[in-house]
Amino acid sequence: MSNIFKAKTTDTNEWVYGYFVKYPDGLTVIYVQDKWESFEVHEETVSRSVDAVDINGDPLFVNDMINDFGGGTRVPDLNHPDYDPQMAFPPTKVLGATKRIGIIVEDEGRVCIKTKEMSYNYNISKASPFNKMERIGNIYDDYKPTKSAL
């Protein structure tokens, strides 16, 4: 996984992206890539990049919520421009329900997606199924710090 993180700032509660540092005194900071800026962040919102993008090209992070378009039946897409009946793995389409919401989590160093129905692991690569999924948010998008975090 990447050394790039995102987290919510303590002053504006906006997302910032960059390198995460936690100091011995408990201060948590994101240093923004290619800039001389740093922001104090809410530690509980820190999310690591999984080195993959979704179907729209948006970077994906641990704690992101995704639609993996599961729940339906996958069948060959005979109308796809790349379809060839000789292909071992032809392009497919999903029939039926096409929305299954999951959360990207890190479990013992592996990237996993947990849904209500199941949990499954992914090896991140250029052929990752993440590029067939859509990021729909992050579990901390509506984060409100507790009084103990202030």
What is the element layout, followed by pairings?
Layout: E1 5-8, E2 15-22, E3 28-32, E4 38-40, E5 47-53, E6 59-61, E7 64-67, E8 73-76, E9 92-95, E10 101-107, E11 110-115, E12 119-122, E13 134-138
Antiparallel strand pairs: 1-2, 1-5, 2-3, 3-4, 5-6, 7-10, 7-13, 8-9, 10-11, 11-12
Question: Number of DSSP strands?
Answer: 13
SSE-based structural type:
mainly beta
As a percent range, the share of helical residues equals under 10%
Radius of gyration of CA atoms, rounded to a whole number: 18 Å
| Biggest β-sheet: strands ordered side by side in the sheet | 4-3-2-1-5-6
The fraction of residues assigned to DSSP E strands is 35-45%
**Low-confidence regions:** none
Gross morphology: elongated
Largest sheet: 6 strands, antiparallel
Average pLDDT, to the nearest integer?
82
Helix count equals 0
Q: N-to-C terminal Cα separation, in Å?
A: 30 Å
Give the SSE string. EEEEEEEEEEEEE
Question: How would you characterize the overall build of this protein?
Answer:
With 150 residues, the protein is an all-beta fold. The chain has no helices and 13 strands. The protein starts with a strand and ends in a 12-residue tail after the last strand.
